[in-house]
Design a protein that fits this description.
By secondary structure, the protein is α+β, with helices and mostly antiparallel strands. The chain has two helices and nine strands, in the order αββββββββαβ. 23% of the residues lie in helices and 37% in strands. It is elongated and about 75 Å long.
Amino acid sequence: MSPRAASLLVGVAALAVALAAGWVAMLRLTEPVVESTIDSVFPRGDRTLVVRYYAGEKGCVDPAGVEVEETATEVRLTARVRLRRGDRECSTGGRVVQDTVRLRASYRDRAIVDAATGERLGYPDATSRARGEPERALAAS
């Protein structure tokens, strides 16, 4: 094979790989993103929360992150998952993953709410903080 033919073959192969990658990325963008239920929230200091949420079966549902909406009285958390295309039935329950979010202000004087369910998540009370007890999970109440 001549060097010119080999170069042409490499170029065609690279183009095919790029087209395939673009096709996969385009399919990925069309996969639906839905809300998921938050399992628990762990505070890390005053302005950082580690959010654990249900991300479904591996290979069927992928984590898509946590969105935060802050007001003076609430921190609303929305966990999202991306449903992969396919014929099989998928559940958003089961596997739990975590994501860390940073708040603009302390969560301590605000309610923390799972926006998907409307459930208020509990948090460590002032008495346990005053005694120096370690912070526990903010579980759905």
